[in-house]
Amino acid sequence: xxxxxxxxxxxxxxxxxxxxxxxxxxxxxxxxxxxxxxxxxxxxxxxxxxxxxxxxxxxxxxxxxxxxxxxxxxxxxxxxxxxxxxxxxxxxxxxxxx
Length: 98
Known about the structure:
Layout: H1 5-23, H2 29-43, H3 50-66, H4 74-91
Helix pairs in contact: 1-2, 1-4, 2-3, 3-4
Protein name: Colicin D immunity protein domain-containing protein
Organism: Lysinibacillus zambalensis
């Protein structure tokens, strides 16, 4: 299945938004991550590279756990968010210009 460039941007933006919500200690963070996980779970059936989707889901699961921590390690979360964005770029073979 062909995934649109707009959807790829949307996925990257959702991961970046996760970081923003962590940084501002948003009360809706855990619900946001839970919703994003449901969406990403369904994507694994639409792409060839389901291993990467499973990796992204695993990272989101850890973010979910971190969302309940009173002081999550933002440095680690930031690194993992940018790792996720990089994995999305590789999975869909896009550059930073999209």
